[in-house]
Amino acid sequence: MNIIVSYLYNDRKIDGSIINAFEYFYTLYELKQDVKLLIYTHQNIDNLIVFLKNKFNVDNKCFNNVTILKYPELLKEKTLLVDGYSVEHLPNKLKNCEILAIPGYNVKNNPKVKYFRCYNFLMNDNFNVINYKQSLRLDLFKDFKSKEGIFLNSPHNSGVYPNFKSDKKIYRREDLQCPNLYQYFNEMIYIQNSKIIDRKPRCFFECQYFNIPYKYVFNGIKDGSFYRYNDYNIIKMNENDLIINEFLNH
Fold first, then answer.
1. For every residue of the chain, which 3-state class applies, written as one string?
2. Residues forming a β-bridge with 236
3. How far apart are CA 8 and CA 190, in angstroms?
4. pLDDT tens per residue, the chain (250 residues)?
5. Contact, 227 vs 41, CB < 8 A?
6. What pTM value is reported for the model?
């Protein structure tokens, strides 16, 4: 059994880490691997499963292998930690398994973990770090038709650009907590929040994939948004992905 793990904070909305975790999980599932997705959260279980079912066009039998837990359990199988909280807090609790991790922020090196680093600012160099180009499964998203709208996207920045005017309907992040947010707009403006590091935003790749034009407002931080807004190299996740390959060669 291979394990994919993500942690959803009690006060956090479903975000890119959960989506990333599901894409790794389902790619391995498609490749006929014995795989399980574990999500640690105290939030409503049914809401989370419904969200994933509404977002992805997948074999619903896969959800038999999705488990929601309130507390970490001891694991013995090869395990991938996908979000920053899990990478920082879970390795010392998972004492009997091989651990792979995608760091979401700079954490202290744990010698029993193999880290896959998307950008240098996310983790310092050490003997366990592998530079990694993340691949995605945007082909799994359910079909939609975009409406006339503009998305003012700024992480942890409610009410951004309060005086912004447009002939289109205006949406902000707090307005679009839904599985298929791209159906509501056909243009995005990403406003970098100078007080918050956006580590691995998916929105630029997703806009490119769905042919939604976007603009980028840089506010002085070389974070994940800075590196991704002009990266047009979208890679579909398959058996050649370094992390997927680690599980296949287990």
1. CEEEEEECCCCCCCCHHHHHHHHHHHHHHHCCCCEEEEEECCCCHHHHHHHHHHHECCCHHHHHHEEEECCCCCCCCCEEECCHHHHHHCHHHCCCCCEEECCCCCCCCCCCEEEEECCHHHCCCCCCEEECCCCECHHHECCCCCCCEEEEECCCCCCCCCCCCCCCEEEEHHHCCCCCHHHHCCCEEEECCCCCCCCCCCHHHHHHHCCCCEEEECCCCCCHHHHHCCCCCCCECCCCCHHHHHHHCC
2. 136
3. 24
4. 788 888 776 556 788 899 999 999 999 999 999 999 998 887 766 788 999 999 999 999 999 999 888 776 767 889 999 988 888 888 877 777 899 999 887 777 888 899 999 988 887 777 689 999 999 999 999 999 999 999 999 998 989 999 999 999 999 998 998 999 999 999 999 999 988 889 999 999 999 999 999 999 999 999 999 999 999 999 999 999 999 999 998 6
5. no
6. 0.94
